[in-house]
Design goal:
There is one protein chain. By secondary structure, the protein is of the alpha/beta class. The chain is about 35% helix and about 20% strand. It has three domains: about 1-120, Rossmann fold, CATH 3.40.50; about 125-210 and about 285-410, Dihydrodipicolinate Reductase, domain 2 (2-Layer Sandwich); about 215-270, no CATH class. It has 14 helices and 15 strands. The strands form two sheets. Strands 14-13-12-11-7-10-9-8-15 form a nine-stranded mixed beta sheet, with helices on one face. Helix 4 (about 80-90) runs parallel beside helix 5. The longest helix is centred in the C-terminal third of the chain and has 19 residues, at about 385-405. It is globular and about 60 Å long.
């Protein structure tokens, strides 16, 4: 029987609790969470004893080692402290991405884990989705020849960006992490995994283009509650329209403290940013960014992150010397062509064990299962990434941000 604890019982923590509950060979024994309604959920829905529902991470860690491994699902700026404490107590760790808020902290976690002989796995769930696993299989079996170029687009969606990166916990890059890390370390990891070699140089451009006061509609107010009705009616970001809709779908960044409170009361309370106009917020998260990467062989990759899409989805195209493949992850269909032949449509979800509409195309389930395998038998898997490999893609992201802040200067990676 594997025993687990979860530090941070927001949406991601509760998701892992659900996966543990479905596993007859595992048990959730402890939770650390600051909001009482989330602790109650751990007790009522997942059977965690009240005495094992800690009011904060310090209380949990001060109790000593209580189980085999811990899932750390707290905010980005807390990852380093919580990971270090967990490792020092002897826990293996599944750490939510990003690993930490700067490369020095990332390296610190890596070096401590290696020194203590503990296992740390980042939640790079895209590696586990049937969509990207199939692309990796095509590359590895030589179906594309040698990969020459790869292009990936992270379509964040206008409403998701507004919720999480303008009004949400990732709106301030200094207090959280650069947007290219917070949103796209998944993408940088998957690009490196598919390329199968080390990145040697990176450059990047981007910025905060739209979500600022110069683009505020005429007659708009600082808070939606005070905005002219004629303006709110046309506004895509009217909090009174977008939050109730998204709360029902559980696609809201940073509303862990929402609980059972009336959403309209929260939006009317000026202490909270959720009811603030997206054009009058104190955000600096970039709403568009491009990253170019050069690899050891001379092959190249390109990542586009944009807030300006209707749907929240990823699109990829890989060009090889003998074939090409492209697709939309949400659609779950790959378009593969061997040069000189006919296009083949591949349904990547046909054999999935889980509903691929849930949890990153099924990736959350497969990642949980692989983490459990990692800390028990250590049996290797094609998708697993060690803390050492995860730090490589994090480094690309942090250097991309350095490049962006320096006018797109190309930075060599050594």
């Amino acid at each position: 029987m594997n025993t687990f604890a979860i530090v941070g019982f927001g949406s991601r923590g509760a998701m892992f609790a659900g996966l543990i509950a479905r596993d007859k060979d595992s048990r959730l024994v402890a939770v650390a969470e600051k909001f009482p309604h989330n602790r109650r959920r751990a007790q009522e829905e997942f059977g965690v004893p009240e005495a094992m529902c800690f009011a904060d991470a310090d209380a949990f860690f001060n109790a000593g080692k209580l189980c085999d491994a811990v899932f750390i699902c707290t905010q980005d700026a807390q990852h380093y402290e919580h990971a270090v404490k967990a490792l020092e107590l002897g826990y293996d760790v599944c750490l939510e991405k990003p690993a930490a808020v700067n490369i020095e902290q990332c390296i610190g976690i890596r070096d401590l884990a290696n020194k203590l002989g503990r296992k740390v796995m980042l939640t790079h769930v895209l590696r586990y989705s049937p969509f990207y696993k199939k692309i990796k299989a095509l590359i590895d079996e030589g179906a594309l020849g040698k990969v020459v170029t790869l292009n990936q687009t992270e379509n964040v969606a206008y409403w998701h960006f507004g919720l999480s990166y303008v009004r949400g916990p990732w709106r301030d890059m200094e207090k959280s992490t650069p947007t290219i890390i917070a949103k796209c370390c998944h993408d940088l990891d998957i690009i490196g995994w598919l390329m199968g070699e080390k990145c040697t140089a990176v450059n990047s451009f981007g910025g905060l283009y739209y979500y600022n006061e110069k683009n505020a509609p005429e007659k708009s107010a600082a808070f939606c509650k005070d905005c002219d009705e004629s303006v709110r009616k046309k506004c895509l970001y009217d909090a009174y329209k977008i939050y109730p809709e998204r709360v029902k779908k559980a696609v809201v960044g940073g509303l862990s403290e929402y609980g059972d409170r009336d959403i309209y009361e929260l939006l009317a309370d000026e202490k909270h940013v959720w009811g603030k106009c997206v054009f009058h917020c104190d955000n600096d998260a970039v709403d568009h960014q491009v990253v170019d990467m050069l690899y050891e062989s001379g092959a190249t990759a390109h990542l586009t992150m944009t807030a300006f899409s209707e749907r929240c989805y990823r699109f990829i195209k890989v060009h090889g010397t003998e074939g090409e493949v492209y697709g939309d992850m949400e659609e779950g269909v790959l378009h593969y062509t061997r040069f000189g032949g006919k296009e083949e449509l591949i349904d990547v979800n046909a054999d999935s064990e889980v509903d691929t509409d849930d949890g990153h195309g099924g990736g959350d389930y497969y990642l949980y299962r692989d983490f459990k395998e990692y800390i028990t038998t250590g049996k290797p898997s094609v998708s697993r990434t060690s803390i050492d490999k995860s730090i490589e893609s994090h480094l690309v992201g942090f250097l991309a941000e350095e490049s962006r802040k320096n006018g797109g200067k190309t930075i060599q990676i050594r």
